[in-house]
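Supplementary Text 2. Reproducibility record for the structural model of the 267-residue chain.

All settings were left at their defaults, and a single model was retained for analysis rather than an ensemble. We include the record here because the model underlies the residue-level annotations in Supplementary Table 4.
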Amino acid sequence: MTDLDERRAGFKRYKEDVEREGTPFYPGPMFHDTVMSLVVVSVIIGLAIVWHYTAHGTEPGWLGPDYAEKADPGTTNFIPRPDWYFYFLFYLLRIFKWPESVILATVGIPTILMILLIAFPFIDRRRERRLLRRPVAVTTAVLTALSMGVLTYKGATARESLGSEVRSQIPVWSQTQGGFSPEAEEGANIFAQVNCVQCHTYLGVGTSNVGAPDLSAIGKQQNKAFFKRYVADPSQFGNNVMPQFKNLGEDNLDKLAAFLVESKNAG
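Retained model, structure tokens:
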């Protein structure tokens, strides 16, 4: 008997066992899954109703407060982080941090692994199920789980620098520019924290993307009022590529504009 005949005979025996002892998917398991799904959804809706009607603003109810504090759109020290199940991808992006390699971390590697995962059952069709006789499958599963676990742990324990690498250059920038005023120095910290060097360059720091200019001597071109209006909403000046930063607030925009207007590359 060939391997194909053996598989066909095994499948026939399986179908006979299902007809003799099995339970049809409809209405058995389908009814049970439907009831359980309704129970879970009902519990979630019930908890949401209890939370909504027992919490009043920052005063905690049975399930906690409505909100802890109002969101501040002008904050520059908030660090966004993904949910725990994306920590592996989050840390993968820290490894492939250069703009040219981001596509490899976000699309390339996960897609290749997913294709291999889907294709593997079609490639290895042996009937053997003992782990010791499936070294390739076992090794692949162990390495995958180990890699995901390590990347998830590293992503969970990673600490963001809030632009510390860029901020460490601010004293050098100040010296090169002839000395920043206190307001301009605070603006330089904002410049680093909102990661402007993702698109701009400043005294050799950063990456020039999508045609963004070097800002080392930008202060020679315009005044403080212009920079404040431009950074708040670049689209008013025909720039639809640069994002708006009006949510930084008037105070932060003043400091950022002061930094730009004092950037004249005096050195």
